[in-house]
Amino acid sequence: MIISFPNLGNAWPAFKAIFDVLGFEVILPDPTNREAVKIGVKNSPEFVCFPFKTTLGDFVNSIKKGADTLVMAIDCGPCRFGFYHAVQERILHDLGYKDVKVIPLDQADLLDFSWFKLFVKMTGIKNPISYWKAVKAAKYFVKKAKYIEDIERCEGKIRAYEVHGGDTTRVVRDLLVKLDEAKTDEKLRSFRQVIAEGFRTIKVDPTRRPLRVAISGEIHVTLESYVNLDIRRRLGELGCEVHQNLSLFDWVAHKFHLNFHRKWLEHLAHPYLPMDIGGEAVWVIGEYIDRAKKGFDGFVHTYPFTCMPEIVARTIISNHLQKQLDLPIIFFSLDEQAASEGFRTRCEAFCDLMRGRRSAKDQKVLSNSVAMESKLSSDPYLNGGIQTAADIHAAIESIIQLKK
């Protein structure tokens, strides 16, 4: 059995850890690219959402590299995501890959432990060793998912300060490889230090005052850099601190009913959307309200073209919340027709808008009274509370909760 799975941004070390521990050979698909998208678009129903097409293209790529068993997460509820695995398996059989099997990994409620039963079943035997392997696989998956979240949060923080363009991207790529190579408890326990050391190598300019921008939306589009045209990197290079709560670990914690931040977002969104309609709609609304109250400069909402839950969230934000909270927001509805140049132009225009608004606020504060000038220097919204390179690295270490 040769295992593979579709791309989901930087999450591949966590997924790979599961099957490494279970003792399977793992083949990683190539990073999602234009060829994979073409294959997915050609063989998918026209109306289906974009993640279906890209993951189908990833599957074909993995099969051509030798994979015979594909693992696809499924969910329940109104979203079409729950049907992906069955429809994709049938399409792959129609394409001639009749010996390929798609295994559904049910993550509707992780507390029912169907995933654990699947892991044990995949080992082919039922004895204490198989149960131990399943537990270890789950432990390594969760730990690596958390470290990936830490890496991404540090990336969003520090890229706006980097002196040499591309340093942050290089560090993130190297850290993901090192995380994949960390296959013992001892190495995983010390990996926070590895993350901190990696980001300390980046030369930063602490005099910059980056914009604070939050990103939210449908999970696959938001996490997969090729699908969202690498929006996190683009915004960082345009001088934005990128804050993104959505991650693989965030989703897993939610499915274990341990994500209290998401419960808070549901509480904020309840007056506008009192039920889960699929996708990330409820949490996008809650996130928008939360970020507006925290004084962010802007908000980015990314989602697949035709994704009805996200369109509902967009409508509520556009027609009601934006008028009340006055937080600038830009929407990106993405599919195979998305163009890089038009996307870049919209990002640049959005950053210019946010800078104009910040300058107007600064002038208003300065013109009110001389007393407010002293307050300006200590306002974390206006200067990020960062004065030196050491302060930036201290902020990075606080993100990963590095123990002294």
Break the fold down into its secondary structure elements and pairings:
Layout: E1 2-4, H1 12-22, E2 25-26, H2 34-43, H3 50-64, E3 69-74, H4 84-94, E4 101-106, H5 114-123, H6 128-158, H7 167-181, H8 185-189, H9 191-200, E5 211-217, H10 219-223, H11 231-237, E6 240-243, H12 248-255, H13 260-269, H14 281-293, E7 298-304, H15 308-325, E8 329-334, H16 340-368, H17 371-377, H18 380-383, H19 389-399
Parallel strand pairs: 1-2, 1-3, 3-4, 5-6, 5-7, 7-8
Helix pairs in contact: 1-6, 1-7, 2-3, 5-6, 6-7, 6-9, 6-12, 6-19, 7-9, 13-14, 14-15, 16-17
Give the tags.
404 residues, alpha/beta, Rossmann fold, 4-stranded parallel beta sheet, 57% helix
The outline comes out as globular
Q: Roughly what percent helix?
A: 55-70%
Separation of the first and last Cα atoms: 44 Å
**Derived structural class:** alpha/beta
Can you count the helices?
19
Tell me the Rg in angstroms.
22 Å
- Strand order of the main beta sheet, please? 2-1-3-4
Estimate what percentage of residues fall within beta strands: 5-15%
Instruction: Kindly report the average pLDDT value.
Output: 89
**What is the CATH top level name of the domain at 209-368?**
Alpha Beta
Q: Could you describe the largest sheet, including whether it forms a barrel?
A: 4 strands, parallel
User: How many runs of DSSP E, i.e. beta strands?
Assistant: 8
